[in-house]
Every structure is written in structure tokens, then in C-alpha cells.
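Supplementary notes (optional reading)

For those who missed the lab, this is the record we used. Protein: Ring-cleaving dioxygenase. Length: 315 residues.
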Amino acid sequence: MSTGTSGIHHITAISGGPQRNVDFYAGVLGTRLVKRTVNFDDPGTYHLYYGDGGGNPGTIMTFFPWEGAPRGRVGSGQVVTTAYSIPSASLGYWTERLVESGVRFEKPRDRFGDTVLAFEDPDGLRLEIVAAEDRRAGYGGPTPAEHSIRGFHHAALAVRDAERTVRLMTDHLGFRQIDEAENRVRLAAGDGGPGNLVDVMDASGFPRGGTGVGTVHHIAFRVPDEETHLAVREEVAGLGHDVTPVLDRNYFRSIYFREPGGVLFEIATDPPGFAADEDPDHLGEALKLPPWLEERRGEIEDVLAPIRVPGKEEA
């Protein structure tokens, strides 16, 4: 049994209307819609998952589309930037693609030796593309495979007690400190490559963030199996954190707790994965419900607006 976590599993954010969200993440960014399901705690709302071709942990961005919900406020106690990884030679392609798609972006900058392009999605969620050495396979979709997004590069956390957050992550969650610059402490897990990186930023003097459209709800870190999952839960609970029971999310098992800096952390298992209830070649094409919600399918489908993936027929 391994100990600790091995990098980012997924990041979950709040968006506005679901179709605009699909148009941007499956269309502009070219990530694959790997699962369309519902928020298990609010079944009248979609839960949309985007990732690489196989829906692998470390590539999964998920959304609760709450149309008409108020905008959130970015601040301390949040994931303030979600960064995607692209091949080192693909920055020119992505610059042109964002221009052609009408996405405004900041001037490219250097951080930790990589070139970074910062922009926002249609709901104001802060994103970056990082041109880095990344040997993971690309997913083509509407973008050429050689230029496609490889998954996450890192996530940036703004916390009100950076020292305690770093200590928790390095002493108990399997991360190690590898660099420091620009008020950021860079942590790495696993092999330390893209998808396994987290930047912790000291935001002790900033107002607390407010949950809403355009903000991240939580970040999940991955473990390989249920045995490790339970061991991490026991260790974190032993530190005095209020940890949830293990929850069945159908595609992984989860626990949640709030770290000392205010960010909601989830620990998620790699298995069983997104092919648990769907053929890998047809991920995300149909509305999938957990067994305990199947008897309500008609009611749920009546509430959810139909969505269309760019380049595919409406499901």
C-alpha cells in the first residue's frame, strides 16, 4: 500500500448555463466531455466532467452548472487558478486559437521556467495554459492531437495560513516542496510532473472568497485504492480535521475536509473510473444516473435542459 496522495484527481467549479460551459470546454479548449450526470446532492442540476480521451485522473475538470446563480467572489480559501498543460511547442497554436475564439488573454509570462498564458472562461473562472514538457498523450477532438491539452499542469491555492497548508500537504498528503517564487510555494506529488503540482499562495491579508458562478468549489487529490483512501482518512481525522464519511460518487470514492487555509479538499480513489457505466468509446454521450436515482430518471430529464457537444449530434 502506498501512502498519501499522488497528485490532482479532479477540480470542481461552478458555472452558469450548461450549454455555454460545454461550448467552451469541449469546443474552445477541446477537452472531452467524459461524463454527463447530475449533482448527487442536487439531482435537478447537471454535473459535467471533462478530461482527456480516457477520462484519466489528473485531467478531469468538473462543473455544477447553476444557471441564474450569483457570481462568486475570488479570494482566500479557494483554488484561484486552474492551469492546463500543453506541449512546449504548442503555445503559438493556442495563442491563435484563443484569438480566433474571442478569448482575451494576458501577455505570456515566465513562471518556474515555463511560459504561462492566463485567461478566463465565459463565467470568469481563472485559467492558465502552461507550455511545459509533458509526455502524456493528447486528446484530439476539435484540436490537433499534437497540440491538444494534456490535462492539468497545476492548481494555485490562495490560503490564509500558507505555512499550515504546506505542512499538511507535505507531512500528510504525499507532497514535497520543490520551488518557491512570486509568493508561491510549489509542491509536487508522485513523479512531480504536470498534473501533480500545486502552488500555495499566502493570501492572509485578502478577503475570503465567496462561492458562486466563476469560482472553484473544491479540489480533489488522488489515491490508488480504497485501502490507501481509508488510511489517509484516518490520518487526517487524527489531526483534528472534520472529515466526512466515505461517499460513493459512482466513479470514485470520496472524503472531504477543509484544510487550515480554508480550501475544501477531497480525496478521491482512481477506481472504478468513468467507464464503470459507459463504453469507453461513448463516454459522455448519454445522461448517466447512479442506481439510487434511476427511478427518478423521467422527473430529472424533464428538469434538465438538453445540451449539445460541439461537432456531435444532440443526445
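If you only remember one thing from this example: Residues 8-303 form a domain with the 2,3-Dihydroxybiphenyl 1,2-Dioxygenase; domain 1 fold (CATH 3.10.180.10).
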